[in-house]
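Researcher: Go.
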Amino acid sequence: MARPTVFKRFPSLRMRPADALIVPPELRARCPALEDDFAVLDRELMPRFQELDRTALRAQNQFRLEQVILLLGGVLAVMLGALQGALRDAAWPGVVEGLVGVLLAVVGVRTRELHAQRRYLTCRVKAERLRGEFFRFLGRVDEYAGADRNRRLVGQVAGIYRAKGRP
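Model: Structure:
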């Protein structure tokens, strides 16, 4: 049975993103004339792209997980508050609600301090810029049309990777 759509983007507790390939091997095999270009890209661009892609996916998962914890914790706190109101003589729902509130405060502070969403966005933008350079290099577009295209690629990759907001 297929996983419901609502859970496809649900965060994972044990996320291990695989190394992404911009052009899969079966498509590369169809273009033997680009074999040398793919070798240069694999050496100069792909390690940085894969690092940024993995970091972005981990940060996205972390952000989503934190949001789910805050959402479910808020629902639990409301339910405990309603239970405390219904059971006037019982003190335990209030104590548990207080503990849930403290836990949510800790998660909220942690969320703010770790900047998972900002790290995700920064890494994703850099990875997508590298993806663009990948295809510009293959297409020999603009600065990649000349004889020094490999040197220019190395410079572009380094500039994108070192740009402000490095993970």
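Model: The chain has one domain: 35-162.
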